[in-house]
Description:
mainly alpha
Amino acid sequence: YQYNEEAMMDFWVLRVCPLETKIAVSEGRKIAGNQEQSFMTRLENDKKEFDMQLATLKTDFEYLKGLSDYKKIFDHANFAVDMGMKLESAAQKVQGFNQRETLFNLPLAVYEDLDTLSSQFGPYKKMWDTKYQFQQDKDQWQTGPLVRVKFPDVMKKVDQYNRDTVLLLKKFNDDEGDTESAVIICKAIKDD
Length: 192
């Protein structure tokens, strides 16, 4: 078996110079400790920043819940889509926090407010998406070429929109809390 000459020299230095080895190990541990502290500080700062973002999301959701101007459907639907993307991004950040915490055997951060907000947001997003899609289809049916409008397809879509709206209306009526604006929008969709 042939030994690598460079590796043999490194082993010889370790054997002959144990003090230098201990110093190098000590410095390595110190550097690792400093990097770990830097990592922990960055994680805590990221969590504080995330808490502020979560508070903004809650405020945005309260604003979304209060929207009832049926005529501004396109603006409201875009706001709902934007908020949905922000919630998805927030969920990914929490996963990133948990991965970093697992790396250092820290307790995992749990953001119940985010889970609650995501579950409460679902019906509102569905409501605005339904209204937006219905408005798009309605405009196409009314202004598009009549040859492309197929009555069975239109009836299927209208029935689906009606079913979705009835389910949302029931949900909003059953929910406790501030759902009056949502009920108004759902009734407007149903009547349209």
